[in-house]
Amino acid sequence: MSRIPESELILTPGGRVYHLNLLPEMVADTIIVVGDPERVPKVSSYFDQVEHRVNSRELVTHTGNIGGTRISVISSGMGTDNVELLMTELDALVNVNLETRKVNRILKRLKIIRIGTSGCLQEDIPLDAHLVSKAALGLDTLMSFYNWDSSDATDAFLWNLRESLGLNFQPYMANASESLLELFDQGFHKGVTITAPGFYAPQGREVRLRPKISGLVDRLAKMDTPKGRFTNLEMETAGYYAMAKLLGHEMISLNALIANRPRQEFSSNHEAAITSLIERVLAKLVH
Q1: Is 168 exposed, middle or buried (0-12, 13-18, 19+ CB in 10 A)?
Q2: What is the pLDDT of residue 1?
Q3: pLDDT digits (tens, 9 = 90+) for 131-172
Q4: What is the DSSP string of 41-59?
Q5: pLDDT band at 42; cut points 50, 70, 90
Q6: 274, 39 in Cβ contact below 8 A?
Q7: Contacts of 233 (CB under 8 A, 6+ apart)
Q8: Would you give the DSSP letter of residue 141?
Q9: How many DSSP H helices and E strands does the chain contain?
């Protein structure tokens, strides 16, 4: 088994993974990921005890206990570039011996739950609803740099979508963990999430610059995918699903839908919708 060079997996002088600034013992097997660093203490405020608090740029980690369940909550910041960094270093913490720099013989499978916000594409889904993503479409290029394989049905759909939108890159589609999807089966809207590489033109918004793809949101909302209709649009889920699949971890993404794009509405109390989602997730995880 070959040794991972210092240049490929960078550690701090204290032996921590470089960006997350964590040691293996600082991470639980069950992890909640959020985008906003300020959402980390909102989640950990429900912990009975916080063992570790680590701040590293936008990457903030709190690890603690609720009852008999040990949980970490980590912020990623925005975008699938940060998702790739977070997932790779999380995996290294549990599946690489950081002293010998060799991959462990027995690999650990983490349980990772994303709590996020996004805009809804379907008029019939109410504002502030909670949605679980059965699958996600990546409109970013992250998987172009990995050996990513899709099913024949997905490949055909992605080819047609690429042609329809006039994309000059190959999008990808990744699925949620079946076991975590079952855990969050009751009381959540379900759908397919679109992950965009930006907030404005990649999500069909126009301020001063006109998007290249006209009518993007309406066109996507009307498409039918192998996993059902597109329901929401954000910036991380597809990256999480794809990286989890490649690394062998369980991953699910849950969103509070704080905007409705076809109705042009934005939540007047989105913090309440997020707080409610946090509480629902923790209730499912704690036993």
Answers
A1: exposed
A2: 62
A3: 999 999 999 999 999 999 887 779 999 999 999 999 999 999
A4: HHHHTT-SEEEEEEEETTE
A5: very high
A6: yes
A7: 118, 119, 121, 193, 194, 196, 203, 217, 220, 261
A8: S
A9: 7, 14
